[in-house]
C-alpha cells in the first residue's frame, strides 16, 4: 500500500487558480527557486542550489546531525520613483531550506563553493564502521 502525501491547502490553491492563475499560493514563477539537487559522487554527498544575485557572505550553510541547512538573505533594493514597473517578481528577503541527508557525513570537512549563482556543497561521507557482533553475558 502506498502512502499519499496530504496537502491541506490543495483545494484552496485550486480555487484560487480557478479565479485567477496568478493568485495561486504555489505560483512557481514568483519567489526563490528553493530546489536542491542532492547526489552521491562516490566519496561525498553533494548538494547544489541556484541562488543567483547573492554574495557568498550572505549565505549560511550548516550541517547538524543528519540535516543540511541553507539560509540566506537577498537585500531589498530601494524602489526608484522614476521606474514604472510592469512586473516585479524578483523576491527579496530571507530564505531557508533544510534537507535530510541520505548518509552520515564528516561535519568538520564540509566545503561550500559559490560561483555564477550556483551554491555547491560537498560533504565527505563518514566511513561506516563494521558492525561487529558482540556477545553480552546475561547475569
What is the gist of this entry?
By secondary structure, this protein is mainly β. The chain has a domain at 33-76 and 87-124: Immunoglobulin-like (Sandwich).
Provide a descriptive summary of the structure in words.
There is one protein chain. This protein is mainly β and about 140 residues long. The chain has a domain at about 35-75 and about 85-125: Sandwich (Immunoglobulin-like), CATH 2.60.40. It has one helix and seven strands. The strands form two sheets. A four-stranded antiparallel sheet has the order 1-2-7-6, with no helix packed on it. Strand 1 (about 35-40) and strand 2 (about 45-50) form a beta hairpin. Residues about 20-30 have low confidence and may be disordered.
Keywords:
Immunoglobulin-like, three-stranded antiparallel β-sheet, 139 residues, mainly beta, 33% strand
Q: Architecture of the domain at 33-76 and 87-124, according to CATH?
A: Sandwich
Spans with pLDDT under 50 lasting ≥5 residues? 21-31
Strand order, sheet with most strands: 1-2-7-6
- How many strands appear in the DSSP assignment? 7
> What composes the largest sheet?
4 strands, antiparallel
Distance between the termini: 44 Å
Q: What is the count of helical runs? A: 1
How does the helix and strand content classify structurally? mainly beta
Strand content: 25-35%
Helix fraction by DSSP (H/I, runs of at least 4): under 10%
What order do the SSEs take from the amino end to the carboxyl end, as H and E?
HEEEEEEE
* Named CATH topology of the domain at 33-76 and 87-124: Immunoglobulin-like
Radius of gyration: 21 Å
CATH class of the domain at 33-76 and 87-124: Mainly Beta
Amino acid at each position: 500500500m502506498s502512502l499519499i502525501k496530504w496537502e491541506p491547502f490543495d483545494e484552496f490553491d485550486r480555487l484560487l487558480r480557478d479565479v485567477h492563475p496568478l493568485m495561486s499560493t504555489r505560483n512557481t514563477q514568483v519567489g526563490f527557486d528553493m530546489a536542491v539537487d542532492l547526489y552521491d559522487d562516490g566519496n561525498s554527498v553533494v548538494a547544489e542550489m541556484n541562488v543567483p544575485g547573492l554574495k557568498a557572505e550572505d549565505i549560511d550553510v550548516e550541517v547538524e546531525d543528519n540535516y543540511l541547512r541553507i539560509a540566506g538573505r537577498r537585500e531589498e533594493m530601494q524602489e526608484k520613483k522614476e521606474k514604472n514597473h510592469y512586473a516585479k517578481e524578483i523576491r527579496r528577503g530571507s530564505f531557508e531550506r533544510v534537507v535530510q541527508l541520505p548518509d552520515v557525513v564528516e561535519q568538520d570537512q564540509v566545503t561550500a563553493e559559490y560561483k555564477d549563482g550556483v551554491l555547491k556543497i560537498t560533504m565527505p561521507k563518514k566511513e561506516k564502521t563494521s558492525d561487529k557482533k558482540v556477545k553480552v553475558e546475561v547475569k
